[in-house]
Design brief:
- The radius of gyration is 43 Å and the shape is rod-shaped.
- The N and C termini lie far apart (138 Å).
- By secondary structure, it is mostly helical.
- The protein is 97% helix and 0% strand.
- The protein has one domain.
- α1 (2-92) crosses α2.
């Protein structure tokens, strides 16, 4: 009878200890999950910012490249118009053509 009471007390204590251990384990897992989620959020935001910065750099480089192309185009256009004007003047005035060959 006394052994049955002691056994019952041991079972109750084991149940209490098991419940306590499970509760602590679940709280620890929950805490680690929250920490991991926060860490991932920070990393995500950091990567997002890096991507945004890189996109801005690429946009600026593209704009500079386009400006360079436009500048070259305008210079070439000006040169061709100048050349065309000279050729037109030479064709319109045959005397200047002879003078230019001399």
């Amino acid at each position: 009878m006394e052994a049955a009471i002691i056994r019952k007390k041991i079972e109750v204590q084991e149940k209490i200890d098991s419940d306590k251990w499970n509760k602590e384990k679940n709280e620890k897992i929950k805490s680690q999950t929250v920490k991991t989620a926060q860490k991932h959020l920070i990393e995500k935001n950091s990567l997002k910012k890096k991507v945004e910065i890189e996109i801005e750099v690429m946009k600026k480089e593209k704009a500079r490249g386009l400006e360079t192309i436009i500048h070259k185009y305008k210079n070439r256009k000006f040169d061709l118009e100048k050349q065309q004007k000279q050729e037109k003047q030479l064709n319109e005035n045959p005397n200047s053509l002879k003078a230019s060959k001399i």
